[in-house]
Automatic annotation (TrEMBL):
Function in brief: Choline transporter.
Protein known as: Choline transporter-like protein
One term of GO molecular function: antiporter activity
Organism, scientific name: Herpetotheres cachinnans
Entry-linked InterPro entries: Choline_transptr-like
Protein family: Belongs to the CTL (choline transporter-like) family.
Transmembrane regions listed in the UniProt entry: 21-43, 230-250, 257-275, 313-334, 355-377, 450-477, 498-520, 560-579, 599-620, 640-670
Pfam families: Choline_transpo
Lineage, opening ranks: Eukaryota, Metazoa, Chordata, Craniata, Vertebrata
Reactions catalysed: ethanolamine(out) + n H(+)(in) = ethanolamine(in) + n H(+)(out); choline(out) + n H(+)(in) = choline(in) + n H(+)(out)
Protein keywords: Antiport, Cell membrane, Glycoprotein, Membrane, Mitochondrion, Mitochondrion outer membrane, Phosphoprotein, Transmembrane, Transmembrane helix, Transport
Top-level taxon: Eukaryota
Membrane topology annotation: Multi-pass membrane protein
Subcellular location: Cell membrane; Mitochondrion outer membrane
């Protein structure tokens, strides 16, 4: 591209500008209106209770107010809970035209014993049949009714087995004792038709349930840890926020010293981590079970088990050593560039100091992103629960109406019952045959696409607002006298008034790429069981290419938004000018700008590492002064990881403002070098310190 020429009228962000990319703005408005319509339609047809609450075989909710089963919150199944056809479990015979399912009934508690209806009916034990009646449909009152008729009418299951409640459902209480699979205390059971079966036949149906059960137990323990440590987690996050704020404030006045202190502190923190890992590694030498490999141990839900292995601490030590060596080598080879980066950070500190509201602006972006996430999630749930209860004809004998859709309200007076006396109208599944139900997958796709588009638009709005505010600082010849009164609000108003279309254009491109990546991930998930190696290879290449493309588009968009904020041009022109400017200064981009990113990363690493180490010593009760204050935990890594992740997000929020400031000043700095030459007629807009340092480092190397 052609370098920018000197323009005596250019004084920073142009105020006399017009609307850009109007077509994209109109498309965004239309899409938002359509998104609202989709949400209203989904909220009208959807019912989230279908996700949360179980139903019986007739599709009626259990334990819901206004339903026949308001006081019976748990559905008891006559057999395994995965709706697998099972003879003798209240299910239809296998020759039924429609896939049959076990009888599913709402009950107040799960059964705790083996019992068949035939044995309960003929039992001489008082109350046994009355106990069994709790697992029949509520309408079943006639205890003297013939068992054959009861089972035929699906009023009671053919058998019940010991079960445990899980997610408001009853699952077989499967356990292993000395390697023998048992349900309750038995290894066999009566299937209700006089045959004995092995409990291993229930194992396949409940295998996934056991995984869910272990996950549920893990989730409950994690939840318990949160209930006793949430206030300490909040204190840790407050400490991270205060530390981040103090660090940013100190950067304002002591940028050079703080950067070098930060570098030294990161090296020391990593060094201490290496030392601690070595001490733990040496301490476990000779202890029983400490030499077991991670591969032999496998996955364990209690992560504390791994801390008793020498290999775990050896792996931690190697990772920290590699990080330490890489950081030290980068500091050695980039020591000269760090001086320029520090000057740029000092300039960014002055800009942030004059626009302190910029530190709070990420809260606005965060709030808007939360709205996008909430709307997307709620719409997705309502769309996924928009299906209606479908009832079909079930029968045990040959019938021409088998498998056809029916209505329970009118089924008893229809011709079906006359032609097929044993036919029943039972709940089959949730679905629908209307046009709305046929295009639900399209609406879900549109929901995902709009989420990406709006989320990227919100991020773009935050970036162009900060860029406009910081650009007004750089291009003020007399700082801060020539700055506008409210640079942040002025930049925000310009972005919404003139450049909504350009922001929509940039975020649309990024959203399309992200949706393609989601589709590729879905295809990869579906092809995991396939043996087509070429398809897997091609899919991996496409995933890699689109990942790289997304990173490049994000980089290009970020710099395009800076040019939009300064010049008010459309997205394509701004992207082209920004890319050309960066390519004309590729060495500075590759070294100087990335060095500042590296220094900010070290700052985030320092804050996260310090708070993380403090949380580790506190929750593991290694600080003697507060040893009795730390709460008892099932997994101490739960609050520690929460504090670490939260601290990173907080530090990233503060440093993202600095990052956008540095990128804006850097682009303006490159423009300044091309437009002006430092003479009296064409003076630089950069600060004297930056100008002085630039001349020192550029001596003999004008392009470096």
């Amino acid at each position: 591209g052609t370098p920018q020429k000197y323009d005596p009228t250019f004084k920073g962000p142009i105020y006399d500008r017009g609307c850009t990319d109007i077509i994209c703005c109109i498309l965004l408005v239309i899409a938002i209106v359509g998104y609202v319509v989709v949400g209203v339609v989904a909220w009208t047809h959807g019912d989230p209770r279908k996700v949360i609450y179980p139903t019986d075989s007739r599709g009626q909710f259990c334990g819901q107010q206004g339903t026949p089963y308001e006081y019976v919150p748990v559905p008891a199944l006559g057999t395994v809970p995965h709706r697998v056809p099972a003879e003798g479990a209240g299910a239809l015979t296998c020759d039924a035209p429609v896939s049959s399912s076990p009888l599913q009934i709402c009950v107040s508690k799960c059964p705790d014993r083996y019992l068949t209806y035939l044995s309960a009916y003929g039992s001489r034990t008082p109350g046994e049949l009355e106990y069994y009646r709790h697992f029949c449909v509520p309408e079943f009152k006639n205890l003297q009714k013939a068992p054959v008729e009861v089972l035929k009418d699906k009023e009671c299951p053919a058998m019940i087995i010991p079960s445990t409640p899980l997610a408001r459902r009853c699952f077989p209480a499967i356990r292993a004792k000395k390697g023998v699979i048992m349900v309750g205390n038995e290894t066999t059971y009566d299937d209700g038709h006089g045959r004995r079966r092995n409990v291993t036949e229930l194992l396949e149906g409940a295998k996934k349930a056991n995984v869910v059960l272990e996950t549920r137990q893990l989730a409950m323990k994690i939840f318990e840890d949160y209930t006793v440590s949430w206030y300490w987690i909040i204190i840790g996050l407050v400490i991270a926020m205060v530390a981040s704020f103090i660090f940013i404030v100190l950067l304002r006045f002591l940028a050079g010293i703080m950067v070098w202190v930060m570098i030294v502190m990161v090296i020391l923190v990593l060094g201490y981590g290496i030392f601690h890992c070595y001490m733990e590694y040496a301490k476990l030498k000779g202890e029983a079970g400490s030499d077991i490999s991670l591969k032999d141990l496998g996955f364990q839900t209690d992560l504390r088990v791994y801390l008793h292995l020498r290999q775990t601490w050896l792996a931690f030590m190697i990772i920290l050593c590699i990080m330490e060596v890489v950081i030290i080598l980068l500091l050695i080879f980039l020591r000269k560039r760090i001086l320029i980066a520090i000057a740029l950070i000092k300039e960014a500190s002055r800009a942030v100091g004059h626009i302190m509201m910029s530190l709070l602006f990420p809260l606005c972006t965060f709030f808007l992103l939360c709205l996008c996430i909430a709307y997307w999630a709620s719409t997705a749930v309502f769309l996924s629960t928009s299906n209606e209860a479908i009832y079909k004809v079930f029968n045990e004998s040959a019938c021409q109406f088998s498998g056809q859709t029916c209505k329970p309200e009118t089924f008893n007076v229809s011709n079906v019952t006359k032609l097929c006396p044993d036919a029943q109208c039972l709940f089959a599944f949730y679905g629908g045959e209307t046009a709305y139900h046929k295009y639900l997958i399209v609406l879900q796709f549109f929901n995902v696409f709009m989420f990406f588009w709006l989320a990227n638009f919100v991020i773009a709005l935050g970036q162009v607002t900060l860029a406009g505010a910081f650009a007004s600082y750089y291009w003020a010849f007399k700082k801060p006298d020539d700055m506008p009164a409210f640079p942040l609000f002025s930049a925000f108003g310009r972005a919404l008034r003139y450049h909504t279309g350009s922001l929509a254009f940039g975020s649309l491109i990024l959203a399309i790429i992200q949706v393609i990546r989601v589709i590729l991930e879905y295809l990869d998930h579906r092809l995991k069981a396939a043996d087509n190696k070429f398809a897997k290879f091609l899919l991996s290449c496409l995933k890699c290419c689109f990942w790289c493309l997304e990173k490049f588009i994000k980089f290009l968009n970020r710099n395009a938004y800076i040019m939009i904020a300064v010049y008010g041009t459309n997205f394509c022109t701004s992207a082209r000018n920004a890319f050309s400017l960066l390519m004309r200064n590729i060495i500075r981009v590759a070294v100087l700008d990335k060095v500042t990113d590296f220094l900010f990363f070290l700052g985030k690493l320092l804050i996260v590492g310090s708070v993380g180490i403090l949380a580790f010593f506190f929750f593991t009760q290694r600080i003697k002064l507060v040893q009795d204050t730390a709460p008892p935990l099932n997994y101490y890594w739960v609050p520690i990881l929460t504090v670490i992740v939260g601290s990173y997000l907080i530090a990233h929020g503060f440093f993202s403002v600095y990052g956008m400031c540095v990128d804006t000043l850097f682009l303006c700095f490159l423009e300044d070098l091309e437009r002006n030459d430092g003479s009296a007629e064409k003076p630089y807009f950069m600060s004297p310190n930056l100008k002085k340092l630039l001349k020192k480092t550029n001596k003999g190397q004008p392009d470096a």
